[in-house]
């Protein structure tokens, strides 16, 4: 908004924690995954938010648990738009656009879509869906899709290897949920 000559931004005062913080806390428990109902509800809310953004021409490109906020009332807020592409990109000041190296450092390779490793300029809403599928896998199994300490190997595995079935790591998952995650993690958008 604007008050006289002063330009301001008003932000919601959010209480809660990032999904990354929640997943780290769960990792140290006997069952490292989120409860099925809660995980499905959070992923659904994130998907609905992303669908709205995609309809507006915004592709996030950096969907990861650190960028999803779980409010104290248990709802998801999409937090980070620093890597987003939108239909008005041509208006950006060339001096303020991050370099390719800065973009690469911002990514979390546990959730990066296969096409982003090749050319992140071709990513679209389906890239965000792949990343959300990686988050769903993590929420429901307690582990990332490709567990590897080397970020380059993770990116290559996301690009080339088939994702393991979530059922391998959580046998109590309903088959429709397992199939949905597999569809979200398909290599060809």
Output the keywords.
single chain, 189 residues, 3-stranded antiparallel sheet, two-stranded antiparallel sheet, globular
Number of discrete helical segments = 7
Q: What's the Cα radius of gyration?
A: 17 Å
The helicity comes to: 40-55%
Overall average pLDDT = 85
Explain this structure.
This protein is mainly alpha-helical. It has helices spanning 19-27, 36-55, 100-106, 114-119, 125-141, 151-160, 175-184, and strands at 2-3, 6-7, 16-18, 68-71, 76-78. A hairpin with a 2-residue loop joins strand 1 (2-3) and strand 2 (6-7). The protein is globular and about 60 Å long. 30% of the residues are buried.
Short synopsis of the structure:
With 189 residues, the protein is mostly helical.
Write the layout of secondary structure elements.
Layout: E1 2-3, E2 6-7, E3 16-18, H1 19-27, H2 36-55, E4 68-71, E5 76-78, H3 100-106, H4 114-119, H5 125-141, H6 151-160, H7 175-184
Antiparallel strand pairs: 1-2, 3-4, 4-5
